[in-house]
Design a protein that fits this description.
Elements lengths: L2 E4 L2 E4 L3 E2 L5 H14 L3 E3 L7 H11 L7 E6 L6 H15 L4 E6 L8 H13 L3 E7 L3 H10 L4 E7 L7 H9 L3 E5 L11 H10 L3 H10 L4 E2 L6 H8 L8 H8 L19
Parallel strand pairs: 3-4, 4-5, 5-6, 6-7, 7-8, 8-9, 9-10
Antiparallel strand pairs: 1-2
Helix pairs in contact: 1-2, 1-9, 2-3, 3-4, 7-8
């Protein structure tokens, strides 16, 4: 499995996103993904499936130190004491002594960033997480976070797919040695019948989704596609046996714009 290296972390290039996966189905998918060769599982407090993710990891039989597990602290737990307590609760649900990566799920202007990042760094120092990072941060917030966080931030997890131009955020992360982890990397399935991606895929004997994921990992981005279907799990990881040409990479990059965002909430920051 290809790895994305960032500030000491080694993040597998393809992972399984678990948003909206619930109960037994979630545990089964995590178990199956790991048996197929996935080594990166992404969950969050707000997904309410940390317990099932932990079950799937144990059922897979894959050694704990071979799996990179990410969870994310929800915005209502950003006050320092809350952050530490909620991280302990996440670990209890996962039945783990530590996660590999702990992220702030969204920015929360109600709590000073300095306090939240101080607590995040403290949790790392206590050994609850090997690495820390952020999610859904803009360029301005990345600059601010890097300047005040006492420990290195290893990634910014953001929506990223061919329809959304994330050049500014990618450059900001690169400046600080941070990785970009892409959620919704196949644009929630919307790329399936995209003429450009289908055509490029046919040239390589691959699907539009595989082209999409390959485009991301060739930019040294880690992608965490979510699927509820076992057969799709195999498809999403089968992207390491072909390479897109520079022309193909550029053609796909031209499809992006600032208007391509699919995940936006009232509490979201002012996007770049």
């Amino acid at each position: 499995m290809q790895l994305v290296e960032a500030n000491g972390a080694r993040i597998p290039a393809i992972g399984l996103g678990t948003w909206e996966l619930r109960a037994g189905a979630c545990a089964r998918l995590v178990e199956q993904a790991l048996k197929l060769g996935y080594r990166h599982i992404d969950t969050a407090q707000v997904y309410e499936n940390e317990r099932e993710v932990g079950q799937g990891v144990r059922a897979s039989g894959v050694k704990r130190d071979e799996v990179f597990i990410t969870t994310k602290v929800w915005t209502t737990h950003f006050a320092p004491n809350d952050l530490e307590r909620s991280t302990k609760e996440s670990l209890a649900r996962l039945r783990l002594s530590e996660v590999d990566l702990l992220l702030l799920h969204w920015p929360n202007p109600q709590v000073p960033l300095e306090e939240t990042l101080g607590a995040l760094a403290h949790v790392k120092k206590l050994g609850m997480s090997k690495h820390i990072g952020v999610s859904n941060f803009t360029v301005a917030l990345i600059e601010q976070a890097v300047a005040i966080c006492p420990e290195p931030l290893v990634c910014n997890q953001v929506e990223y797919h061919p329809y959304l131009d994330q050049t500014k955020v990618r450059h900001a992360c690169a400046r600080h040695g941070m990785a970009v982890v892409a959620y919704s990397p196949v644009a929630k399935g919307r790329i399936k019948n995209d003429e450009t991606l289908v055509r490029i895929g046919q040239a390589h004997g691959k699907t539009a989704a595989q082209v999409c994921l390959r485009w991301l990992i060739q930019q040294n981005v880690s992608a965490i596609p979510r699927t509820s279907r076992i057969e799709r799990l195999s498809e999403n990881i089968d992207i390491f046996d072909f390479t897109l040409s520079d022309d193909e990479m550029n053609e796909i990059s031209q499809m992006g714009s600032a208007k391509g965002r699919l995940t936006d909430f009232g509490f979201a920051p002012k996007w770049d």
